[in-house]
Write a structure and sequence with these properties.
three-stranded parallel β-sheet; two-stranded parallel ribbon; globular; alpha/beta; single chain; 8 helices
Length: about 210
């Protein structure tokens, strides 16, 4: 997901898929460039990019048209134009989980990774490296494995958001995770959080106890 392509072991891990949520304000041209360039520099022959798309002047698609050298070799698009947020009334609607159609809108790139894993029928889904510490990063530097200047800064994303707006966003984000967990359990699929951080919706486990 996102800036994982900056990880020094990315080529060794060679994930089967790499998910990016649609580029959005305030992440303009520079944000799109950082995401695509980091991926292209670490791209493996095994990995397929699943690129979220919405009609935005600085979308990844628009940026690739201007910079064709950044287009991933293996690329698929997820269309979120006109997509709806997941809520208590629609979470059980099969069409919102169909990736070849118009799946529900992403409140975080982790939504997209979970959508993919559930769509593929994975019976056990382990979350790694997704701290979701938005409230903490509002006041303090993020503790990413990469330097802030290398990636897309949480501080930049939150620079024009009030504390109340951020709390509201976190509330609806957690509500969405709760509905994702509910959908997974209905299908006998289990999501386990091995990341720590501020994501209490899913049961937690230590990775060393799973491997």
């Amino acid at each position: 997901m996102s800036m994982f392509s900056l990880h020094p072991a990315y080529r060794e891990i060679a994930p089967e898929f790499h998910v990016l949520a649609p580029n959005h304000a305030p992440l303009g041209e520079a944000g799109a460039d950082k995401m695509l360039r980091a991926y292209k520099n670490a791209e493996t022959s095994r990995t397929t990019m699943l690129l979220g798309h919405m009609d935005y002047e600085h979308s990844y698609l628009a940026h690739m048209r201007r910079n064709p050298e950044l287009r991933p070799t293996r690329l698929r698009f997820l269309n979120f134009d006109g997509a709806r947020h997941l809520d208590e009334l629609n979470w059980n609607c099969p069409a919102l989980w169909e990736l070849s159609g118009r799946p529900f809108l992403l409140r975080s790139v982790l939504y997209g990774a979970l959508q993919l894993a559930l769509y593929m029928g994975c019976d056990r889904i382990y979350i790694l490296g997704a701290d979701q510490n938005y409230l903490e990063s509002f006041y303090a530097p993020s503790e990413h494995f990469y330097r802030e200047e290398e990636g897309v800064s949480d501080r930049l994303i939150h620079q024009n958001i009030s504390p109340l707006k951020l709390l509201n966003d976190v509330y609806y984000s957690w509500q969405g995770y709760e509905l994702i967990r509910r959908y997974a359990e209905k299908r006998n699929q289990r999501i386990v959080n091995c990341s720590g951080g501020m994501l209490p919706i899913f049961p937690r486990a230590r990775l060393k106890n799973i491997l």
